[in-house]
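Question (not urgent): is this output format expected?
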Amino acid sequence: MTSVKHDAQLTASAESSGILNFARQSAAITHVELLKVMRDPTEVLARAVQPILWLVIFGEVFSRVRGIPTGSVSYIAFLTPGILAQSVLFAAIFYGVAVVWERDLGIVHKLLVSPAPRSALVFGKAFSAGFRGVIQAVVIYATVLTLRVHVRWNPLAIAGVIFAVMLGSAIFSTFSLIIACLVKSRERFMGIGQLMTMPLFFASNAIYPLALMPRWLQVVATVNPLTYLVDALRGLMIEHAQTLHGPLVNFVFLSVVFVCLLAVATKLYPSLAR
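Got this back:
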């Protein structure tokens, strides 16, 4: 009995040590990725302009259109979470370009010979992409404050938005990493990335309710991760907003998608060095 108890303690200790090592190695990768952003923030700042233009121009113009059913909220309030999700998508989907650059510079080879597991490498990159998404969220909140859009300023709601943004950024950056592992060329990656962003964006509820879509497009939207990200953000940011699902359903769906993509990216990442 004592021997069994001792073995169980050793197993628990090994599992705890493994989790801590995974967290440290992921944090190290995240730190390196964030240093890149801090040294050259021009890309992040440039992408911050796009959501401002969408809200200020597109939002203000389409607020005058009465044919878009948004319930009891204004169209620009309805649009705000969609534009935040869009900026997260656009910032994260091209994350794979940096990975292709790392391969060309030999950085991928160095990472692969390190003792860190492949999953920690991929998770660290995905987690760092989440911080880029948070920058987009700060820009959106500053913009809606200027435009006097009614959003929730409850600290718990804002914390939920930050979590959703980081999770969404992790999903699309990991998806981007998978594309980079498959095409292995900057030119091809840019073409595929541009090809993917518009269908993901327009086949979601970011700028109009699903009820306005034809039936076949509604089916596509129900399996689009961006739809669930928008729905989660809309429920957290806007008072009395009409949502498709509860927050638990949205976060569970997004978490499952991320775990699946993380598993695929972990398996494919070593092929990038070949």
